[in-house]
Amino acid sequence: MFGKKKEAESFTYEPPRSFAPSKLAKVLTTVVLVIVLVYFLFPIYWLVISSTKTNAEMVSSNGLWFASSLSELPDAIAANYSKLLGLSQNQFWRWVGNSLFYAGTAAVVGTLIATMAGYALAKFNFRGKNVVYGLIMAGLLMPAALLTIPMYVVFSKLGLTDTMISIIIPCMVSPFGVFLGRVYAQSSVPSELLDAARIDGASEARVFFTIVMRILAPAMVTIFLFIFVATWNNFLLPLMMVSSNELQPVTLGLYGALSQNLRDYGPVLLGALLGVIPLIVLFLGLQRYWQSGLAAGSVKE
CB within 8 A of 221, min separation 6: which ones? Predict the structure, then answer.
């Protein structure tokens, strides 16, 4: 019995020989993946190296390795960090907090709105449905930078410029999120399941929040990440909307710090490195949700 159990645990599935890739295909695939990995990780590696250097060391030292010895790195990082706080007038972590608030709020609200809209377009029939979907697709094709000045005019007339709302509201509108939510809802939400819930007496709100949201969890994570990253990296909109130093996101704050002092690149690069860490943590933390099944949680036990 134990021998059979051990044999079953050690069993690994192997595809038929006719479907198995050749050794050359495996080698080429590995080489391509390694190249892609290096391509995406090299900028972060260079940022880590350069954030520990002074301007003189960037020119005189090896660009792919630290200018200081490993024992001297803490002092070099501390020196650049002190300069970073000086350039930002001790506002750097406030800028990071602003970016987290802008991106987090816009992503949460925008994901909920996009998922609701996509679900409605996929599962409900109403007059003007195709027109609404056409407008959403038109918004998807329109560059966001083209709308920045009109949005500034609107918010200026409303007296909402130089406020957090002027950044959050435009960023939480995501035509791509609505499109993605509609595609996922069409392919992943069974109409029979919705009809069964309605027959049991569930309201449309309860159907959405207890059934549909569980099924669309991978789509919601994807939409959340797109909105979060787009809001975090947005530069032109905060540049137009915000003039107060206390309301600036980290992207705009670092730009202002660099424009005021063009001599110190190391502290600004250290700020850019610290500013990208939340995105890395977010992607690593939500990665497992992408791999979950689209219908997880939709079947009653």
Answer: 286, 289, 290
Query: Phi-psi bin for 90: left (phi > 0), alpha (psi -120 to 50), beta?
Result: left
* Whether residue 16 has pLDDT greater than 70: no
How large is the angle between the packed helices 217-233 and 265-290, nearest 10 degrees?
Answer: 170
pLDDT (tens digit, 9 = 90+) per residue, 224-256?
999 999 999 989 999 999 988 889 999 998 888
Alpha helices per DSSP H over 173-293: 175-188, 191-199, 204-207, 213-215, 217-233, 236-241, 250-260, 265-290
Give Cβ neighbours of residue 284 (< 8 Å, ≥ 6 apart). Answer: none
CA angle 164/170/176 to nearest 5° reads 140
Q: What is the pLDDT of residues 129-147, one digit of tens each?
A: 889 988 888 888 888 778 8
pTM: 0.83
Q: How far apart are CA 299 and CA 189, in angstroms?
A: 11
pLDDT of residue 120: 92
Positions of E strands within 121-170? none
